[in-house]
C-alpha cells in the first residue's frame, strides 16, 4: 500500500496546526523545515489508545531530537479543534497533556494519501514515520499496523545513523565504527 518514498523528494504539504501547549492555531508547510531534519509521523486518530503512548514518548524525547537539529511534527486526519481538545485533556482521562511540538490536521486526507499511508476505506492513516533531511529528501520511512506503536529509540538511532554520513551496519549506534566500502 505505501509507496516507496526513500531517496525521493518529500511530497509537499501545507496544513493547519495546533501548538503543543494547546493554545494557538497556526499553519505549517514542508518548506518551513528547509535546512533542518524532520521526523514527520502519522497516527490514526485523536482520543485512541496506542497513539498517546507514541506521541507523548516523542514529546518526552524532544530535547534529544533538538540536539540533533531535528524538528518533530505529528499529523492525523482529525481537525485542529480535536487536536486542541486532546492536548487540553489530562493523560489520566486519555488525553495528551502538553506536548513539545505541534500537531497538524490533514482533514482533507491529501497528505496521508501523498505519503502512501491513507487507509481509504477507513478514512484514517496508518502509523507512518518519515525522516526528511534538510534538503527535503525522504531518508527513512516505516509504516506499520495501527495496533502497534513505534519506537522512539529506534527513530533516534536511525536519525543519528543518517546524520553520521557513513555506512552503518545493523544495530549501529553513535560511537560505533562505520563500514568501509571495498
What does this structure look like?
23% of the residues lie in helices and 24% in strands. The protein has helices at residues 51-60, 62-67, 80-87, 110-114, 152-164; strands spanning 14-18, 25-29, 37-42, 70-76, 103-105, 118-119, 124-125, 127-132, 138-144. The N and C termini lie far apart (36 Å). It contains 5 helices and 9 strands, in the order βββααβαβαββββα. The strands form 2 sheets. It has a 7-stranded mixed beta sheet with strand order 2-1-5-4-3-8-9. The chain has a two-stranded antiparallel sheet with strand order 6-7. It is of the alpha+beta class and 182 residues long. The protein has a single domain, classed as Glutaredoxin, CATH 3.40.30.10.
* Helix fraction bin: 10-25%
Distance between the termini: 36 Å
What amount of the residues lies in strands?
15-25%
Would you identify the CATH H-level superfamily? Glutaredoxin
Structural category is alpha+beta
Number of domains: 1
* Largest sheet descriptor: 7 strands, mixed
Low-confidence stretches: none
Q: Quick check: average pLDDT? A: 92
Write down the overall geometry: globular
CATH fold descriptor:
Glutaredoxin
**Cα Rg:** 16 Å
Strand order of the largest sheet: 2-1-5-4-3-8-9
What is the string of SSEs from the N terminus onward? EEEHHEHEHEEEEH
CATH C-level class is: Alpha Beta
